[in-house]
User: Which sequence fits this backbone?
């Protein structure tokens, strides 16, 4: 459905995107993840034909972005980071206006308005001026304008920025519902949003793709030593001393303190070593008590930090 090949984008001497390549399948919800300034919005604008790349090629459903940009725009719904709303319009007036300029047939406009208003949960506010809407409802209207013409592809750039937890949950559910019928690229730097809404993840940093796959696939690829968290009742200095003498322990650090003689420790093993049984025996033989024992799983946050850290 979407094919990005060898895309580079330069602004003067600054390289915003550096020879990136990826594909998005029809019906897929792709999370485009990266820190601020990584190149996410630049990529979104190139896919939507808002900008052209300095070099490389973009194809959408077989159409070339440079030769067929108008046809491509008909297939795409776009929600930029700053939602394009006219505050003096009523919600209904605004969506009708967008439908008209998006080329929805006059005979279909009322039908599309009803469908979109229902899908986006806007029935309570359709007669309200946009400048009276909450941030959450403004985002809903922004999503509505992006799908009013029933596009095949939806591009969402930071759609939950500035929302409170309840609003984020509402927008997340709405995106998942829309994603059942459309190809979606969901750009964000919020890790929980990607895990909650996306089938696959691309991580971009400094204009380059540094990771691609499902969250589990990315975690499996990450060369990471096992980490054990253990909370022990016992003398802290003696605990640290005995752990430091264990050959297969790479690193030990005090993670937290519950009481004067109860500490939580994060223990990192050497690669490929399972420390759990050995640590249990060591703690018991030393006369300490284990109050908590957990093997830490690799998370998308771990992957993100590893792949986007400064070299």
Assistant:
């Amino acid at each position: 459905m979407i094919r990005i090949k060898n895309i580079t984008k330069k602004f003067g001497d600054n390289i915003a995107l550096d020879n990136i390549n990826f594909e998005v399948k029809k019906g897929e919800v792709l999370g485009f993840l990266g820190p601020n300034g990584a190149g996410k919005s630049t990529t979104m604008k190139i896919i939507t034909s808002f900008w052209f790349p300095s070099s490389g090629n973009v194809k959408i459903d077989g159409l070339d972005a440079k030769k067929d940009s108008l046809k491509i725009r008909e297939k795409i719904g776009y929600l930029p980071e700053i939602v394009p709303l006219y505050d003096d319009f009523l919600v209904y007036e605004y969506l009708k206006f967008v439908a008209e300029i998006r080329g929805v047939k006059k005979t279909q406009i009322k039908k599309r308005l009803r469908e979109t208003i229902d899908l986006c949960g806007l029935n309570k506010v359709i007669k309200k001026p946009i400048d009276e809407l909450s941030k959450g409802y403004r985002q809903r209207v922004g999503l509505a304008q992006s799908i009013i013409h029933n596009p095949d592809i939806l591009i969402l750039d930071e759609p939950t920025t500035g929302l409170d937890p309840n609003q984020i949950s509402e927008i997340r559910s709405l995106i998942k519902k829309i994603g059942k019928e459309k190809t979606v690229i969901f750009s964000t730097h919020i890790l929980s949003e990607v895990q909650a809404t996306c089938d696959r993840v691309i991580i971009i940093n400094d204009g380059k793709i540094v990771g691609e796959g499902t969250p589990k696939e990315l975690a499996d690829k990450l060369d990471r030593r096992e980490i054990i968290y253990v909370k022990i009742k016992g003398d802290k200095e003696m605990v640290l001393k005995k752990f430091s003498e264990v050959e297969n322990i790479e690193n030990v650090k005090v993670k937290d303190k519950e009481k004067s003689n109860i500490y939580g420790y994060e223990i990192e093993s050497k690669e490929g070593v399972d420390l759990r049984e050995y640590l249990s025996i060591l703690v018991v033989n030393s006369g300490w008590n284990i109050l908590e024992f957990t093997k830490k799983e690799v998370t998308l946050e771990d992957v993100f930090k590893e792949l986007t850290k400064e070299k």
